[in-house]
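Take one record.
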Amino acid sequence: MAIRLGDTAPNFTATTTQGELNFHEWLGDSWGILFSHPKDYTPVCTTELGEVARLKPEFDRRNVKVAGLSVDPIEDHHGWAGDIEETQGTALNFPLIADPKREIANLYDMIHEKANNTLTVRSVFVIAPDKTVKLTLTYPASTGRNFQEILRTIDSLQLTANHQVATPVNWNHGDRVIVVPSLSDADAKQKFGEFETVKPYLRYVPDPTA
């Protein structure tokens, strides 16, 4: 059964390149990203894992822990890590989960029923500190992900979780945001001060975190 937004992210214990990991305990009070890749020693995956390693300071700044997963054994993960560092210029610096029995892949519905059943699709799950799933993305095996976009969505998720705003199309941190429709004009004025009304349902205020 597919995991939906608002569901509790299933917990699991697994072997990783950084030792055994209990997912919920490892997340603690942090946000989390769990992402799968189809197979070790494949070109697109190699570039993705190198990019995630390069972006670790950005994830750390947002209090986000990242874990990757594939259905290959841990020995392959350790061997592949050398290729990632050699070709991408950044060593693997986050846990890579080994799931050779496909238990976690099936738990998170990462194997498409019409795809090669030995490969996971490129799934992404963003998980809040309360362990609920806030974002899901699924890419085909042939398309590498844009992790800058994933960082952008995390910025939006963290902003909208703490303020009564939504983020408009193509929003980036620092851009103006939208007052949620459930907030009255009077309450919006009390909370934000002045705001721009384009339509009664479309009201803009500056990013309160900028």
